[in-house]
């Protein structure tokens, strides 16, 4: 049985991306189909309510997950595995 917290076992059902970055890349692709896309520049951090994905390029919220009153022990275990700080979670 695979480890549910292993990064290799996590397959995203949907890619989280900045809609402004996506639109800019689509526009650039129309002008230069062989050009390079601007890479994502996202920051992920904990908030008092959950997790937030932030586009550093556009200084905008991309995604926010609120955990409500759910147990965050799984998140703390995952942070410990990837080296994040869970001390103040
Ligand atoms: Zn963006």
Annotation keywords:
binds zinc ion; alpha+beta; single chain; three-stranded antiparallel β-sheet; 2 helices; 89 residues
| Largest sheet composition | 3 strands, antiparallel
Number of domains: 1
Contiguous helical run count: 2
Ends distance: 29 Å
Bound molecules: zinc ion
Q: What is the approximate shape?
A: elongated
Could you list the spans in which at least 5 consecutive residues all have pLDDT below 50? none
> What share of residues is helical?
25-40%
Structural class: alpha+beta
Radius of gyration: 16 Å
Mean pLDDT: 81
Beta-strand content:
15-25%
State the strand order across the main sheet.
1-2-3
| Strand tally | 3
Task: Give, in order, the helices and strands.
Answer: HEEEH
Account of the protein in words:
The chain has 89 residues and is of the alpha+beta class. The chain has one domain (16-82). It contains two helices and three strands. It has helices at residues 19-31, 73-82, and strands at 42-46, 50-55, 60-66. The protein has a three-stranded antiparallel beta sheet with strand order 1-2-3, with no helix packed on it. The model has no long low-confidence stretch (mean pLDDT 81). Bound molecules: zinc ion. The site of zinc ion has 6 residues, from helix 1. Residues 18, 20-21, 55, 57-58 line the site of zinc ion.
């Amino acid at each position: 049985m695979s480890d549910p917290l292993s990064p290799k076992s996590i397959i995203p059902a949907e890619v989280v991306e900045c809609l402004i970055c996506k639109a800019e890349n689509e526009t650039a692709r129309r002008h230069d189909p062989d050009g390079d896309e601007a890479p994502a520049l996202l920051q992920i951090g904990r908030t008092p309510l959950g997790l937030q994905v932030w586009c550093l390029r556009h200084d905008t919220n991309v995604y926010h997950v609120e955990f409500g009153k759910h147990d965050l022990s799984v998140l703390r275990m995952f942070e410990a595995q990837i080296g994040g700080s869970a001390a103040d979670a």
